[in-house]
Structure formats: C-alpha cells, structure tokens
Specification:
elongated, 153 residues, alpha+beta, 2 helices, five-stranded antiparallel β-sheet
C-alpha cells in the first residue's frame, strides 16, 4: 500500500511540474511575439520617395576646366519670412498627425503629417486645443491637435 501512495504522489508531482513548465513556455512565447509586434514596420515608400539606384559619378576634370576660374557658388534662396505670430515646429507624435479642415474631429481630414516632419504653426486659438499648421515640404495647411508639436526656434 505504501508503494501505491509513493507512485501516486510521483505521478501527481510529475504532472504538476509538466504543467508549470508548459505554462512558463507559453508565457515566454507570448512575451516574445508581443515584443515583436510592438515594433513598427518601416514606412513604405511610394512614387517620388523611392531612392534612385544610380548616382551621378563625377567626371575627371579636363585641362580646360582646370584652367578656367571657379565660379562663385550660388547662394541658397532665402527662407520666406514667417507671418506675425507664426513659428517653426516639428511633429513629435510617434504615429504622426491627422490634419483636418477645421479645429475639431467633426471636420473632414485633409491629410497627414509624419513624425519629425517640419511644420509652421500659423495660429493658436485661445482654447489651445487645436493649432493651424502648414507642412513645410508641400505647403499643405490644416488643423492638428495641440501638444503634438515642438517649437524648433
């Protein structure tokens, strides 16, 4: 009878240890996949955003070109002046921002702004809930939720 109870206790202990090991493996697997899914995939590139495969290779200078005086480098075009009260900013929201026609979610979407994209804040109403911005890269204007940009000046 004593041998029966020892065998039964070994069986119960073995099943308990197996269940504990299986649950630990399940938790470890779940944590692995949750960690992998929390990383955002790279942003897809379309149209003009695609990198070019060929780059211009500088040609060797000819003797005529070496004898010619160097031309003065062209000055960069001056940046347009900002409107009174406007300032430069950058988007800090990690997922980017949705631009709307007016200051509220009831207005239709007119575009979006990516994270770290330069914008010009044109208007900040007194309620400070929404700000009117212009995207520097394409000139598109719209309203975004306040607090998602950082002044760069």
């Amino acid at each position: 009878m004593k041998g029966f109870f020892i065998g039964l206790s070994k069986l119960i202990l073995g099943v308990a240890i197996a269940l504990i090991l299986l649950s630990m493996a399940g938790v470890a697997t779940a944590r692995y996949f949750m960690g992998r899914l929390s990383v955002l995939p790279p942003k897809p590139l379309y149209g003009d955003e695609m990198p070019t495969a060929t780059e211009a290779v500088p040609a060797a200078p000819t003797p005529e070109a070496a004898a010619a005086p160097e031309a003065a480098p062209e000055a960069a075009p001056p940046e347009p002046a900002l409107e009174p009260g406007a300032y430069k900013a950058v988007v800090v929201q990690p997922i980017g921002l949705v631009m709307r026609e007016g200051p509220g979610v009831e207005f239709p979407q007119v575009g979006g702004v990516d994270v770290n994209e330069a914008v010009v804040v044109l208007e900040e109403p007194a309620d400070q809930d929404w700000v009117k911005v212009r995207v520097v890269s394409n000139g598109q204007e719209g309203w975004v939720k306040a607090g998602n940009t950082r002044r760069t000046e």
